[in-house]
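User: Um, what's this?
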Amino acid sequence: MTSEEDYVERLEKIIEKQDDLLSQLDARFSQQDALNEYLFKQNRHLEEDIQKHRDLTRDMNKTVTQQKNVVEKLKKELEEQLKIQQDLHKDYGEVIKQLTDDLEEEQEKNEKLTKKQSELEAEIKNLKRTQAAQKQNPAGNTYYGTVSQKTAGNKKDDEKRKCPKCGTKANEGDLFCQSCGTKL
């Protein structure tokens, strides 16, 4: 019996070892199940994150496309505004040139009118002198005074005919100096 008892004992030890191994395997399977469950949750989270990332990328692509469209529209509007501004500058330059030409033409007309006015004033002065001479000598007699009287009269006339401001000689009957415009 000893051999049977030894055999049974050895079998019991083997069974115990197998039970320990099975317990260890059960524990490892439990750990593996827990690890699989954890990995499954992590995979699910990763899949959700990947989907969110895909959605975000798609939305970003849409936004980039929209921004490109907006930039294109703004670029076209700016080009149109630039063209309008260039046209306005061109028109403005033409208007300024026309106004400058008109102003020069008016100045030339004014100069001609001023010259004509001076000529007319000189004629009027001559006429007034002639009228004054006719009033003083209605009979047409010529006045023959002494040389000293004529010289004295000419000196007075010369002094009267100079501008008090600039000294320019003025014609008899001029109301204003031809050079500086001072009233005589």
Remarks:
- The longest helix spans residues 2-136.
- The helical segments are 2-136, 147-160.
- Residues 141-155 have pLDDT under 50 and may be disordered.
